[in-house]
Give the backbone structure.
Amino acid sequence: MKNSVFFLFLFISGSVLSQGKFITKKGTISFEASVPSFEEVKAKNTTVTAILNTDNGEFAALALMKGFRFKNALMEEHFNENYMESDEYPKAKFKGKLIDFDKDNLQKEYTIQGTLTLHGKSKEIETKGSLSKDDDDTISITSSFITKPEEFDIKIPGIVSKKIADDISVAIDFVLKKK
């Protein structure tokens, strides 16, 4: 009997604690570092995990570097081996929160603040993000920001430095489902 009550308590506690969590494992992060007159430098990762806690506005995302897909397989190989060193630094992580988050007002633009960890380096990021509540079980988040390779100690060899933009445009698009 004690075991039954204990497991019932754990089940109810878990349900209550997870009421404010929305998650995806199919989020999208894309970036573009193209320069006019040269080959397009653009990639997309559609297997990003993200979670939003609607009880407090905490937000986190995790992307595997080898999940980024390019038009050109050789470019993808160079990205993973030469620039991102994906075997040594396999993940990009963001952990932060939506400032002045109000779970009763999900249809608005929020400031997102947090730490982006990439290539073994961490940097504070602040950007705008748009939230929309698609239905009771779905929240969408979109955002974009600019970063630079040198902010994360990513070395671009001189021979290709003119073919890659100094400013990298990053965009996120997450459709999170209630957990």
